[in-house]
Amino acid sequence: MCGIIGIVGxxxxxxxxxxxxxxxxxxxxxxxxxxTCDGGTFYMHKNNGLAQDVFQTRHMRSLRGNAGIGHVxxxxxxxxxxxxxxxxxxxSPFGIVLGHNGNLTNSAQLKQEMFRQDLRHINTNxxxxxxxxxxxxxxxxxxxxxxxxxDMIFDAVTEVHKRVKGAYAVVAMVANFGLLAFRDPxxxxxxxxxxxxxxxxxxxxxxxxxxxxxxxxxxxxxxxxPGEAVFxxxxxxPLRKDFPELKIVFEHITTKEAxxxxxxCSQFTGATITAHHLLYNRNAIFTGGVRPHFYCLxxxxxxxxxxxxxxxxxxxxxQFFLGTDSAxxxxxxxxxxxxxxxxxxxxxAMPMYAEAFDQVNALDKLEGFASFNGAxxxxxxxxxxxxxxxxxxxxPPESFAFGDAQLKPLRSGESLPWRLV
Length: 421
Known about the structure:
Blueprint lengths: L2 E6 L5 H10 L7 E8 L2 E8 L2 H4 L2 H6 L4 E7 L14 E3 L5 E9 L2 H10 L10 H16 L7 H14 L2 E9 L3 E6 L8 E7 L2 E7 L2 H7 L2 E5 L5 E5 L2 H7 L5 E3 L5 H9 L4 E5 L1 H5 L23 H11 L6 E3 L8 H4 L14 H11 L6 H13 L10 E6 L5 E3 L2 E3 L8 E5 L1
Parallel strand pairs: 13-14, 14-15
Antiparallel strand pairs: 1-4, 1-10, 2-3, 2-4, 5-6, 6-7, 7-8, 8-12, 9-10, 9-11, 16-19, 17-18
Helix pairs in contact: 1-7, 4-5, 5-6, 9-11
């Protein structure tokens, strides 16, 4: 077993991480390591030995930043080489460091997949380096350009769970974004989360055992649930605090947690929601076989998330407004082994929104969501024109001409209960 710790504080965390590793030292005596983050730069020191021997004063001074992770290692996989001391680092995408407690049972298979499919080189025999590269690859797959949000990170962790077998409790940091912690779906390895209220705001901590929280003055909140991922933002919350009237829009939210976060914020934080995320959960992608035209990024989620989005959209709260994210891709590029992500809904966006609102008897909230909230949020005049929707069944065409190709719209060949007239 190994010990892991992660802290997002309001002041430098190097001493807290060191003290936490001393408390967790019984979980691993082979090696110790700490990585801190200051701005977009990681500062790392790790080596073989006990924490008290690995970290000298000169090392502690170099570990700058208000967020960081630490690890004490007991070598259950790989070797006792100092090269396998954790945390591990990978520079792409974004820059990620990771500490891992557990054992992967399909590490050899994953290592081959990393090389042959994902074009990633694993430099040690440590299954933790394999896990880091799987996570990095999945984050790269879900991220849009240089933009990353919690929804994308949670999507990436979901994909990690699908690929990785075995026991794992993980703490990681993504440069310029935040701290991530998650457990395997069976919850075999322990992981807890705590917080500490200070005059400067709330500090958060995750660790293998609650004794580390107690010693460092953090209050235990709960265990991280099996299969759960927790993301602690190191950028957005400080940004909102420093610029309280800065307008921030999440485009587009797809999870219950994102909706709850936006609702908890001031009127200067908003979010858009797509019609297809209001109408469908992830089962739609696979009903009757794989349906590539329902594949989008962020992907469709579980039913609990769809219901939370519907609740947010129909709540009447001004922070939530329409955003179609309609994406026109030629059919042959959607119906492909590495198909393009995106659903084309422009042909029937308003009828689809009407269908979603009608399903929960909230048609009276549709106009505000579609026409008023977005304009009001951005301080723009509301449109004076109107459109008319009628409850009348119709069927979208199978496809549209798209240059020399064909474009297949969402719900093609299926009956829609509302139409634009």
